[in-house]
Design goal:
single chain, globular, alpha+beta
């Protein structure tokens, strides 16, 4: 039995058909939001294909329960953790940051009481598996399975998320290839090559590491030189469609997974990020911006301005970028460490290879978006150029988040224009900026900053959460096979984001109501939403602004990792682990072990089925 409802939302672009029922995925509360699908291809979407794509790329279809041997294998991995914790119980030294673990090593000694507890827990798990028959009633509808198979196997169709999270885009393969060829035709940035010299690159990487072995640990050398089991892969170049541009173009991004410099890039980021954090103009996130604005008092005639650096990553000249990097780090490391970092950075930048449609290119200018090193490198380059410029007294506030900058200027408009012109000239001829200047309001990241009616009295700016006009709010639907606590965390997390960014309770109530209605349009039950919404109050705003991010009291938890399904949820794993923890507390040798917890591993979502960084073959 199904009932159809049309929900009249406050947002006219988000009218959505909701299907309410209880028996299968077809009967679950699945939202169909066609406005979030941008079909720029020649392929005509069927009703079922629209319905499938309307669920969003994060949607997880109901899957078959994992086989018993896989569940037991996950438990054996957990048991190995217990043995390792007991074996190293007297060791207080922290595990090195870059040590590559050996998954096949087991402790040489066995503690009988612990083995008894593990055996009892495994028997309890096997008992629960026997008494809980696998029920396949919650299947993925065959109509949607067929739609998924057709979209997945269509070689002439490329499916990508839009740039700036503006929905899902369907593109013709020919258009996608032409866009890639157009961007790769820039001989100032890319040079086509026949092959990628992995052996030579590995030898050069090895030579640098051992040449400066006195300035790097053995674990770090092993980490940088680590070779995957299936050997190295070339970076896959892919493009995210920029729907906000006319005509539509692609934002180039490289998939760095498996590339020879993947670990080198991570190591460089780890070394250089503290230097970036120490720069006065560096902005960590929009929450840090809100904290700054809350403490600022500005003159009534203050100008607000933002600017964006165009195509920052591929625009940085490699030679000048490396010189800037050297100047930024020379006071933070010894000379040997500086030489090590600079050699690895130069090798990473100058020997970057990528693959597109079976062909290979070498990037000879700038850096690729997609590597860990790229972000900190580009930011330090801009910091160096900014530090070279004269400090202006009229500049009341200036912060930059990667290539987006925000400032407040107390002076006349002409002087501000001169300052921005001089800033652009200081970025060299390779880099350009687009600016926005206003006396009343600006938009920066996801924050709308403005002067309200009380600004003349309080001298304090107000903020609102900015939501792009093209945003289609394709939230995770409630029928997705995610654990319930993950859906709850998503809802409460978004509400906390609204609380922090809305400087008035009136605007918070408005956006909260919109959020509620948009979630209802994605199939979320009213009772569930009321429970989640009751956990987040506007009175929490000061606490949210003051709390530190990434606070983790238990940095090394003891977890049982297992795939989530409706079946595994009924196996009583939490109860089994709670009983195991009680046994730990009774044994003096095991009291040091933390409380075990279940960590659900999500099955494949639609993104993993439909989106790929590599183009499908026509064969």
């Amino acid at each position: 039995m199904r009932t159809l409802f049309w929900l009249p939302l406050l947002d006219p672009k988000a009218y959505t058909l909701i299907i309410f029922s209880r028996k299968s995925v077809d009967d679950l509360e699945c939202g169909i939001t066609n406005t979030a699908i941008h079909n720029l291809s020649s392929h005509t979407l069927s009703y079922n294909e629209k319905k499938l794509l309307g669920l969003g790329l994060n949607f997880i279809p109901p899957t078959k329960p994992p086989q018993t041997q896989h569940i037991i294998s996950d438990f054996h991995n957990f048991a190995r953790q217990l043995r390792l914790r007991h074996f190293f119980r007297g060791q207080t030294r922290l595990i090195p940051r870059f040590r590559i673990p050996n998954p096949h090593w087991n402790p040489p000694t066995i503690y009988p009481p612990l083995e008894r507890m593990i055996r009892n827990s495994e028997e309890a798990l096997l008992h629960n598996i026997r008494v809980n028959p696998k029920d396949n009633h919650n299947k993925f509808p065959s109509s949607l399975q067929v739609a998924l198979k057709k979209l997945k196997n269509n070689p002439n169709l490329v499916i990508m998320p839009a740039d700036k999270n503006l929905g899902l885009v369907l593109l013709d393969r020919d258009w996608y290839l032409k866009e890639g060829d157009r961007q790769l035709a820039d001989v100032n940035v890319y040079k086509q090559v026949d092959t990628v010299p992995f052996e030579e690159l590995h030898s050069r990487l090895e030579h640098i590491c051992y040449k400066y072995k006195n300035f790097i640990s053995r674990d770090e050398i092993k980490y940088i030189l680590h070779k995957p089991m299936n050997n190295y892969r070339v970076c896959a170049l892919y493009f995210l469609p920029k729907l906000h541009k006319t005509p539509v173009v692609g934002r180039p991004i490289c998939s760095y997974n498996g590339f020879i410099f993947e670990h080198t890039s991570i190591w460089l980021h780890h070394k250089l990020y503290p230097i970036l954090q120490s720069q006065k103009q560096h902005l960590r996130d929009s929450l840090s911006l809100i904290r700054d604005i809350e403490t600022l008092q500005l003159p009534p005639d203050t100008w607000l301005f933002t600017f964006d650096v165009e195509s920052l990553y591929p625009s940085i000249p490699t030679a000048e970028g490396l010189d800037a990097l050297r100047n930024m780090i020379k006071d933070h490391f010894s000379s040997g460490e500086v030489h090590l970092i600079m050699n690895l950075a130069a090798l990473t930048l100058q020997q970057h290879f990528l693959e597109f449609d079976g062909r290979f290119w070498q990037q000879i200018k700038g850096t690729a978006m997609g590597s860990n090193f790229a972000v900190v490198y580009a930011c330090l380059f801009l910091c160096f150029l900014e530090n070279m410029q004269e400090t202006k007294q009229e500049l009341q506030y200036f912060k930059r988040y990667i290539d987006d900058a925000l400032g407040f200027w107390h002076g006349n408009r002409h002087d501000l224009t001169v300052f921005l012109d001089s800033y652009a000239q200081g970025l060299k001829e390779h880099i350009k900026i687009t600016r926005c200047v206003s006396q009343t309001e600006v938009i920066f990241l996801d924050v709308h900053i403005f002067k309200d009616t009380d600004f003349q009295k309080t001298h304090k700016l107000s903020t609102r959460c900015h939501q792009k006009e093209l945003n289609r709010y394709q939230y995770l639907p409630y029928c997705s096979a995610h654990p319930k606590h993950q859906k709850e965390a998503f809802v409460t997390g978004e509400l906390k984001r609204y609380v922090a960014r809305e400087s008035s309770i009136k605007s918070f109530k408005r956006i909260r109501l919109l959020f509620f209605q948009r979630l209802r349009a994605r199939g979320y039950p009213t009772r569930f939403l009321r429970f989640c919404f009751s956990k987040v109050k506007y009175s929490m705003r000061n606490t949210l602004l003051l709390q530190k991010t990434n606070a983790d009291n238990n940095k090394n938890p003891l977890v049982l990792k297992i795939f989530y399904s409706e079946y595994t949820r009924t196996l009583g794993l939490t109860k089994t682990l709670a009983q195991l923890y009680k046994e730990f507390e009774k044994d003096v040798e095991l009291r040091h072990l933390p409380r075990p917890m279940v960590c659900w591993r999500n099955p494949r979502n639609l993104r993993s089925h439909l989106v790929s960084s590599r183009i499908k073959s026509l064969i």
